[in-house]
Amino acid sequence: MQQFLYHIYSGRKYLQRLFLSLALVLLAMQSFATPANATGAYDMPSLVAGEKTWIIDQAEVLSRISEGQINNTLGNLAKETGNEVRFVTIHRLDYDETAQSFTDKLFERWFPTLETQANQTLLAIDTVTNTTGIRTGEKVKSLMSDEIAQSVASETVLVPLREGDKYNQAFVDASDRIWAVLSGKPDPGAPVVTDNLKVESTFTKAEETDTGGSTIWVIGLLIAATVIPMATYYWYQSMGS
């Protein structure tokens, strides 16, 4: 009987070590998940001036209808005025990168000379932090000042997001405003902020979602490491009685 209980006890200790090892592996995988999924300027596809690609929705926050509407607006703008505007969405920036530094690096990668930069506008957003960056060429500045460009990035895009992650509205409104300004029409201005607008962000962070999922797995494994050996012990005990 003592030998039987010794085997049960040894089996329990083995299973506990096994499940604790699995839990540590899961935690390690979680810690490396963020850098692996981060995006830098050189992770984006190549693009050159004149190319008819107006949206790169890597974060997949835009509907097909909105993409079609924006592509039509920006395509007509390029055809009629020569001014090219591109929107980029990403999900999680590289470590120590900001939305503006990412935008600057991508702008200079795609358009490496002052000549190719002249008629270009690039607007980017990181959907984890909902922060934006915008960069314009020198000829664009004669129509769309830096003040208006910053207003597009920080107001036209971000106000709908503060109202509830309305990415489609945010980028459709941004494309309409940029189209008006770069077509020589009066600036429609930033959206009106209503009194009941919640300024404090209520966005669910991806890190919170990911961490919560891993925590559930870890807790489940720890419970299993205790319950399974006990169940095994009682099963053997019932078989022997």
From TrEMBL:
<keyword id="KW-0812">Transmembrane</keyword>
<feature type="domain" description="TPM">
    <location>
        <begin position="55"/>
        <end position="179"/>
    </location>
</feature>
<dbReference type="InterPro" id="IPR007621">
    <property type="entry name" value="TPM_dom"/>
</dbReference>
<feature type="signal peptide">
    <location>
        <begin position="1"/>
        <end position="33"/>
    </location>
</feature>
<keyword id="KW-0472">Membrane</keyword>
<keyword id="KW-0732">Signal</keyword>
<feature type="transmembrane region" description="Helical">
    <location>
        <begin position="216"/>
        <end position="236"/>
    </location>
</feature>
<keyword id="KW-1133">Transmembrane helix</keyword>
<protein>
    <submittedName>
        <fullName>Photosystem II repair protein Psb32</fullName>
    </submittedName>
</protein>
<dbReference type="Pfam" id="PF04536">
    <property type="entry name" value="TPM_phosphatase"/>
</dbReference>
